[in-house]
Amino acid sequence: MKVHSRRTLPWMFLLFLVDPGSFQDLVSKGFIGESVLLPCNSSRSSVVAVFWRDKDDKVLLDIKKGELDPGSQDPKFKGRVFSFPEEYQKGNFSIIMRKLELRDNGTYECTILTGTGPEKIRITLSVEERNSASCGSTRTNVLLLFVFSALSLMFYV
Ligand SMILES: *[C@@H]1O[C@H](CO)[C@@H](O)[C@H](O)[C@H]1NC(C)=O
Ligand SMILES: *[C@@H]1O[C@H](CO)[C@@H](O)[C@H](O)[C@H]1NC(C)=O
Ligand SMILES: *[C@@H]1O[C@H](CO)[C@@H](O)[C@H](O)[C@H]1NC(C)=O
Prior knowledge:
Layout: H1 2-18, E1 22-31, E2 36-38, E3 47-54, E4 59-64, E5 67-68, E6 81-83, E7 95-97, E8 106-114, E9 117-128, H2 132-156
Parallel strand pairs: 1-9
Antiparallel strand pairs: 2-7, 3-4, 3-8, 4-5, 6-7, 8-9
C-alpha cells in the first residue's frame, strides 16, 4: 500500500503539470456585515475533492469524497463560511461568506480535483462599506468648507 502511494503521487503531480485543466477568473462584490456567495461549480462527474483557499493559503472549506471536512477550516472563517451539501451532487460547490469584514477583501481560489484534471476558479472579492463613497465625500466636503472659510477669514482680517 505504501509503495503504491509513493509511486502514484509523483504521477498525480505530473498530471497537474501536463493538464492545466480549466481556469476561470471571476469578480465579486460584498458589503461589510453582509453575506456574499462565492461561486464554484463543475460540470464533471468525477469530482474527488474541493479546496477553498484565500490568498494566504488559509482554508475556507474543504470537501473530500463528497463530504464537508469541518476540521480543516481556519479560525478566520469558522462559523462564517458555509457550503451547500445538498448541491454537491449537482457539482455546485459554491460557498457563502457571512459577516463580511474589510479584511475579507482579496482573492479566493476554489480548486476542484477531478479524475480528468483539476479545475480552478479564482474570485476577486472586493469588500466595501455600503454608501461609503457618499459618506466619505460629504465628510471631506464639510472639512474643506471649514478650512476654506477659516483661511478666507484669516486673509480678510
Ligand atoms: C457554473 O454555473 C454557471 C451558471 O449556471 C454556468 O454558466 C457555468 O458554465 C458553470 N460552470 C461549469 C464549469 O460548469
Ligand atoms: C449553487 O447553490 C447556491 C445555493 O443554493 C445557489 O445560490 C447557486 O445559484 C447555485 N449555483 C449553481 C451554479 O447552481
Ligand atoms: C482591496 O482593497 C484595496 C484597497 O482599498 C483595493 O485597492 C483592492 O483593489 C481591493 N481588492 C482586492 C481584491 O484586493
